Amino acid sequence: MISHPSRHCTVELQALPSRIGQIRRIVSAQLRYWHLDPLIDRAALGVTELLTNVHQHARPDKSCTVEIVLLPDRLTVSVRDHDPRLPVAADLKDVAPLDTCGRGLAMVAALSESWGARPDGEEGKVVWFTLPARVEAKPQPAGAPRGTARERPAPRLPEVEPVGCAPAAPRAPARSAVAG
Predict the structure, then answer these.
(1) Which residue, of 57, 64, 73, 100, has the greatest Cβ tally within 10 A?
(2) How many CB atoms lie within 10 A of CB 159?
């Protein structure tokens, strides 16, 4: 296991059906960047359920913030909205098999290590879930070979700001394609 400070990603949005798919893709891309591919399906499903609850139940508006936090041993996904009413998970025994609502938090509970809801000031709440995550150390490539008289460094490209939550990847040293 590698020791590192926590990593996080925050996205503010209106919990509208068209945006929920975008957030699923953002969460999936962020977890791929963190090399947590095995968690993608559960995290994407969980965040979809939490955002659907905001869309269906939150008052006075559908504004919310999704936050993903990675610690060495767990991933926490949370959704903060402006409705102070705390959700209550339905018992799946009380939900008819073909019902299309009422099972979201039960699904979150089933797919996660833990979940919960807490007040966020007087006018909001945070609903969250955690997934176990072990961040493994990735083998580092051997150092770049020393330059020879025949090698010239590649021209530098202009800096581009990364889009989304993932920090820019470390820059690899330039290498010549000339044999010799």
Answers:
(1) 64
(2) 7
